[in-house]
Known about the structure:
seven-stranded parallel beta sheet; six-stranded mixed beta sheet; elongated
Amino acid sequence: MPNPKxxxxxxxxxxxxxxxxxxxxxSRTAVDYYDTLPGSEERLIERLRDAEIVFNIRSSxxxxxxxxxxxxxxxxxxxxxxxxxxxxxxxxxxHGVTVTNTPGVSAPSIAEHSxxxxxxxxxxxxxxxxxxxxxxxxxxxxxxxxxxTLGIIGLGAIGRRFAELGAGIGMRVIAWTMHPNPALGFELxxxxxxxxxxxxxxxxxxxxxxxxxxxxxRQLGLLKPTAILVNTARGALVDEVGLxxxxxxxxxxxxxxxxxxxxxxxxxxxxxKLDNVVLTxxxxxxxxEALEAGLQLSVDNVWNFLAGKPTYVVAGx
Length: 317
């Protein structure tokens, strides 16, 4: 595919353009680059109609069956990140499009963020910080993690790394995963047992039809009153209505959330009014190191595809 038409339809806010990976890409070929979100399927199709290679930067861009049908020249979709919930993979296969992603590169960053959220909730750091800034000197107990049980749901690269970090601060780690493998070295338990016995539950699954609403009202009802829930994966993995009810009624101690059903989180959202929740803006993997490594891998995936040796293929013809 000599001189393929390459399009980047969605780099907003810009993360690819300032990177060395982008400089490496544009030094070898021309690209059509957009630093605004398309905002609609029609606008996305307009940007991609003649594209042969597409870089997907933002999961807010939805690659539906209509998009693939309207862009018959597309042969590759290179995703920055691991999630594919914004892409109709079956339609991609039908239309002969190879889809790749960048697994593992953000795992250390996201695992560290999971640890930070867990400790921020347990130690009530946002509340105490605000009170100290107001001239108060609050007293009272906070929660120690040493000796507590950390339940990991999903043992991909991020789940495994967070399990290691939890063990490193003296937590007992138990895990449930869709593909159990004792060789991973963690104590594997049934999901209900994990939910009932863990002091912290951290979810690290991909969002799919199988996992949407994975933690619903029944599962949330199994959590201990002192439990903390951490979610740095996808908001839709947890039933938001059930989670709001659980948190507002204090049926668990709190939650640390980096992901939400609707992003950006709308002003005045009920979660923003709860004092037992720590919120961050889907930023767990946004470090200079993780950004550069992931963006460069998405570029490398393109060169490997063009060389006839595709790497990190999620779906393809």
